[in-house]
Automatic annotation (TrEMBL):
Ranges where the record places region Disordered: 250-291
Annotated protein name in UniProt: Capsid maturation protease
Comp. bias regions, Basic and acidic residues: 268-291
Organism for this UniProt entry: Corynebacterium poyangense
A family per Pfam: VG15
Amino acid sequence: MLALILGLYRSEADPKEIRRSSQSFALKAAPIVHEFRRMSRETSIGYLEAFRDAEVPEPKREPIHIVEDDYGVEDIFEDLHDTSRIAMLQASKKGYTQEEIKKAGESAITGRATRIVADGGRKVIEGDIERGQGPIGYARVVDADPCAFCAMLASRGVSYTGLMGEGEGLYRSDSFIESNARFSGGGKFKVHDGCQCTLEPVYKVAGKIKLPGRGDELARAWARVASGEKDPLAAWRRWWDSGTLPDHFDGEILEGEKKRPRPKPPRRGKDLTPHTRRERAGEQKKKDFTASDYRKWAKQYKTRADEVARELAEFRKMGKKNDEIPVLALKEEQKRLVARIKAYQDFADTMDK
């Protein structure tokens, strides 16, 4: 599909006549994109049936609920026309060359066309799940190289049917507005241009829920890296994009990860003998840590533990159960923080005696 759209765009787009050429392109491209959107819908219907048959015993299977597609050729024309026109006009205003203007249009058009086609299939799955008679909910499945925000959303786990209204739960409107204005969508499953995320129905089989794709892995990573931080999404983005761990991270550093140089709380009973050349030369030695220092660190860990507890409370409000990986991962992090708090408080108490 992209090869067809790109070839058409390159033959029609003209940086000297942005409005006219954008309209000409959109008129020819809209029927092509609409056909691929129809194929995407058919693929999703087949996927839903195969997934249901694999997960649900035959006596309990419900028929797939097919929602009509209300996004027609005219809508696609308007979408592609506006996307091309705006992208090239913005590039032109920045003083780009004609070749650069055309490249900007190509990038915008391919992202938007991909989204329009993929949304056709996504809407089929979302419509069946939202009916609430088959799967218990749905989960976001990311591609091989998702953006940080999509990865975070996938880590949230199952979005339960019948429990959330528009803009609630996993896809709270304030999260999208504050974090990334590229995300939008008429339903609860928000995407951005070029987004390759899919949503997958989730069934409870033999009393257990397993997140599809990398969901379990991402849930554990979120608990390890971002939960309890003052700005968890910023901490997640920094780690996802560069491997940089939060300043207060005190766990095992894995391959590809790094920390910014920063003093950190010592372990209990840490040997304070001189280790650096300056210390061995008799220069000022590190001070001995006091009970007040350990209580300060315990207070910092308490703040983080409280944030993890708040996130757990949000999960439970969303209908999540204690046996789901996102909840289990947060509870494990909470347990680790509580143990560290107690250790520092106990050590401070012994120093007072």
